[in-house]
User: Fold these one by one.
Assistant:
Number 1:
Amino acid sequence: MFKQADLAYDYAALEPTIDALTVETHYAKHHATYTNNLNSFAEKAGVADRDIEELLADLDSIADPALRTAIRNNGGGFYNHNLYFSTISPNGGGEAGGAIGEAITKTFGSFDAFKEQISALALGQFGSGWAWLETDASGALSISNTPNQDNPISLCTGKKPLVAIDVWEHAYYLKYKNLRADYIKALFDVIDWEIVDANYKKIIG
């Protein structure tokens, strides 16, 4: 059974960056629905005992095309939101430090250049989707964007996500309305780089 990641802070803890109603609606309704749907479809497909990363990387193993699509969408929603909510916190903001900070500077030239490039990908994602900071097993960083609930794992890129910028309208519309760029800029005030750094170190060993 797939379990929605516990929220490590109160709904209001990310204010003023993200308002309490948005966090509650996003986490307790949207994320919960993806989780419940994934469990239902995974049970029907006989894959409920699989690791979510393994499952998303091997969607072609699901023979039924309707179940494959449902698990791609809801499994992606489950995984993406687990990452999103676990890498933002009231203690976030500032520049990345540690190993991830060094890797960002090495790859993009500076932290500000990284912010500018990933923000452009997030802003430029047409319709619903995500922008990602990702790494391969060697620690090489890259950025990308994906539509809907796809991610680097489900697209079999060989990369694992580190930072997820959710640009579905439910992530920001209650507070920022149609001003996606303002939301993206503000989101950096709550990205917790210590958590991202710890995740990065786990991936690269």
Number 2:
Amino acid sequence: MNDWIERDAGRVWHGFTQMATFPLQEPVIVDRAEGHELIDSQGRRYLDAISSLWVTTLGHRVPDLDAALTDQLGKVAHSTLLGNGNRAVIELCEALARVVPINDPHFLFASDGASAVEQALKCALQYWRNIGLDQKSGFLALRDAYHGDTIGALSLGDGFHSEHFDQLRFAVLRAGGYASPGWAEEACSLIAANSERLAAVVIEPLVQAAGGMHIASPDDVRMLAASCSEHGVLLVCDEVATGFGRTGSLFASRRCGIQPDLLVLGKGITGGYLPMSATVASGRVFTAFMGEDLGSRTFYHGHSYGGNALAAAVASRHLELLAEWNVLANVEARSEELGRLLDERIAPLRAVTDVRLCGLLGGVELAPWISARDVCSEAVRNGVLLRSLGEVVPLVPPLTITSEELERIVSVLEQAISTVGGGGARG
């Protein structure tokens, strides 16, 4: 066994991983990276087709982002935002304010998507309390939703073995997910019937990513947003996975033509360099928290590393690079290519039941008789890093992926499905 795997298994506890079998799964132990490739402790290279769990937008070791990080190191690595400020954070907020799909935005920072979802839940609940409507304390979420693994986020979510924590989760109203016909009508009906007690509706706009890469019609998302507005319910858009160009627009909410009351950002915000997330509140929500110093309207919430200066500096430069490099145009062009490759070479395979793609956020759903995990393991052995979600193989390459690299991903995936499934295209 690779000595690094043995050392890893001896001390590290990996999330969503059975540690008793971890050493047997041929885990990749990363030593370094170049561009879109990871290089393991034995010098083998892997095309990072999952963007290191969907966070690495521009690739690894981007010189401009490296420079932003080292430049900020020469100033200050971190200072608290509890009652004080930081220039790097102010500049990031000003830059984000120009592009987020929300009116008069104000930014509250955390370090991961789930924590930012928690912030949004608390903001929504206290918003109504602050304006004298304490009874509005419930939440509506969708089936197949995933919003993170902290308790509030886990309560919103559906599946992912959350039953282990049912004693900690709070109840939510649940409408159909994007894979369910008529999901938007069902959700709107629930909003209308429960508006007096609902604080907010929480959705992943356009794509339910971790739930299986299910894609909604923008019209349906707009219908839900209009219902929230009509019935006086806040709309929370969780764009941890879909934000920063992943679906082909900078934010999926904008592609759907909606403006949420609270927006949750994470994953790609720093280009995959440092942990950072943000809860973005509209001016309407933010103003409800104004009051006397340390009074009851104050939002008594914050994280030690929220608004880390190093992360903020990198996030600001990353936002600039998305525009300077015209990354969204690359996403659009490569998405069209990837869709064509999947339709021609993956969809016809008898082990494949569906192919879904929005921008560079996609998934290949496999038949129950073939193991998606085994398919991903076979792809890794052939130099393409993939990680399954149930019976779905997610395809989430860097936003700067090239045509040649897409060809490599699809070729390896085709070979892996055929090898594991024991056959090729349908007859």
Number 3:
Amino acid sequence: MDVVGKRIMLFSGSSNPELAKGISDYTGIPLGKVKLETFSNGEYYARYLESVRGADLFIIQSIAGDVNNALMELLIMVDAAKRASARTVTAVISHYGYSRQDRKSAAREPITAKLVANLLEVAGVDRVIAIDLHQGQIQGFFDIPVNHLTALPLFADYFAAKNIENLCVVSPDVGRAKAAKKLADMLDADLAIMHKGRPAHNVAEITNVIGDVEGKNCIMNDDMIDTAGTICAGARALKEKGAKDIYICATHGIFSGNAFYNLFRCPAKEVIVCDTIPFPAEHLGGKFKILSIAPTLGSAILNVYNEDSVSEMFDPDFAL
């Protein structure tokens, strides 16, 4: 695609090629050819098989799965693009790995979300497009533009189409309350908030449910599901409080450890996630539903390239 001498090119890393294809299909921009290999000692290699000189590159990668390798591959692809004289390089990061360590909660801890931001900038990234970062303030870790998108309108459309009555959106913790309130406003639903303790990593204890959930159909919304310990403990707490049907939705389905075992046993009727991270084919169907984020990311890419507003893709009142 050429606009007044400009040229846009899409490239995909190896962590989420299905999403990259979806973005390509939506935008009508073919995926560029890049050679990605791994040396016998585990080092990554990237070489663009077509000229990128003067082009605006958008590199699609999810920092998930094998997180360290996905991050390193992205950095190497960016470095190769800059050394090949790309005009700009935008990292389209569908899941921002290491985002949970966004502050020091105890002495002698790292802030890995900031470290990753530094690495991306040093590699040569000119802009980042991300969706539902673990905390919105991660945008401030960058000294380059960050377009922070949200999947809340996608979830709102999904649940609105189901015509569920007596809805209540539930935040699994206080930190997610603001986003839960926005989803509740979109659906004209009630709001409840859970209070949890975290005695250890990937361990959660629900200590209280603030709000009336008795007899209501509840939607628990979070930015990610990892081991599913928090969300399943929350679903059980809602049942104990008299909730009717329970739906779980999250932008990023990490599903590590015993996540699927936990989710199959929890009282949720459906578990809905986006395709920001590849979903295991053997678990498709049943209570699991996948929503494509490709149109959202594709629209953002086109707007950035055409120098149109990205924020206008969403109601500004709902921007995270």
Number 4:
Amino acid sequence: MKLTTMTQVTLDGVMQGNGSASDDRRNRFQRGGWALGKGDDETRTFITQTYQRAEAFLFGRHTYEQFAASWGSLDQMRAHPIGVALNNAPKYVASTTLTTPRWRDTTVLRGDLAAAISELKAKPGNELQVHGSGALTRWLLANDLIDEMTLIVIPVILGQGARLFPQTGPDLALDLIDSRVDSKGVTIQVYRPAGRPRYATA
């Protein structure tokens, strides 16, 4: 399976609290729900079709619990095509603290996470998808486990909140393999990791 990620981010790189005002208040974050209603029908179709081609899903614990409480529990969301895709596919959670996952068909990955994910990637199938899960996405990038990443960039600057990419961290070059902008100014950018960047020499 190809390991892919999909993340909604603001222009200043924030990914925290995209869904609602109350879904992520960590560190006194007060500007949630910034992605609600953004994007046109084509963008929403693109997101839905992305979920539908997943063979399995991989989550960090925080995102897993949010998804389990919504896509995995609420009848209206379970009936949506995204909910159907999530509920019908195997789900994996990278967590050292989760002991009793409540969402059907969930496996908790413990121990050597890199080895466990490499084993999943070696299985036949389409995509092992990561949605949200910022800490996990950063770890996967640092360990060269991501094959493709999609950024859905919402035209807003928050000025606070957890960012997808930290202030300091490993460097990475990316090849842009697809890009589009919708009628509401939301951009979709699909990247493939391409080793380390080249820097100017003295």
